[in-house]
Amino acid sequence: MAPLESLSIIIPVYNEQQNIPLLYKAVVSALQPLKNVWEIIFVDDGSEDDSLKEMEIVAAQDHDHVRVIELRRNFGQTAAIAAGFDYAKGDIVIPMDADLQNDPSDIPLLLQKIEEGYDVVSGWRKNREDPFLTRTLPSLIANWLISAVTGEHLHDYGCTLKAYRREVINGFRLYGEMHRFIPVYAASVGARITEVVVHHHPRRFGKAKYGLERTLKVILDLFTVKFLSSYADKPIYLFGGSGLLFFLISGIMLLFLFIRRIFYSISPFDSPLFVTSLMFMIFGFQSILMGLIAELLMRTYHESQGKPTYLVKKVVNGSEDIHPTEQP
After folding, report:
1. 46 and 69, same structural domain?
2. 309 three-class SS
3. Do 205 and 252 belong together in one domain?
4. Engineering a disulfide at 198: which of 4, 105, 106, 252 sits with its beta carbon 3.0 to 4.6 angstroms away?
């Protein structure tokens, strides 16, 4: 029988002092019945109240299971989650919010799906306990937009409570509001993803840290995610495709002007379409050149750091050691 996988619970914290003791007890209650080795990592994201003190009290009481990481200032939820990932030792990593709106009792449900063979299990707050206009509606719009653009259809990208196998979250860095896009990154390396309905509770203490402005940041980050997930390895497909489209538009305009010149004796130089067609042709050249430059940068990135262009899940009847191709 394979050994049980270890768990790391990542909890980013910003001004949640009243929630910390209750959250710790709830997480422990959910994890104690499990046979897995587990740890809880609190990441203090520059809290201005006594959250850090409450976390240190919990850590002093439970040396074996609790660690606290204090960031020097408030870097944001994504950076705090990234710090937790970097310090986590578990084979399975589960981030969750510190505001008690995520329910720790749902953790075994996520693990059950992991045991079924999934690499990512995403929580779905089907019945949200948040204000509709300021929180739920923007979230619904963002989830629809992300699913439409990325092709990875989830109901609730914004739910922090998710479970990840360690191997599918290695190899990329998180910026901005990109923690919600981790399933998209995981899907790009072949991860099996599923979704489960989880509980969602109204906030009892403190106040929400985010408003409508967060939705705008998510939309901007979506452009980056789409590029990295679809075109990072072959940027020429994006820029070159755009360049060919510009050439096609330019060619259609020039063909129209040529036909008009032949059949109606109208000079093409008197039409603004001639200048417009030349502009589209220049845009096409520039776009293709940008694609070639991006290709060179990407090849330099992979080769200078020894990064492979593939990821191996497992090797059957053979060693996992690789033998680099000999260069002539």
Report:
1. yes
2. coil
3. no
4. 106
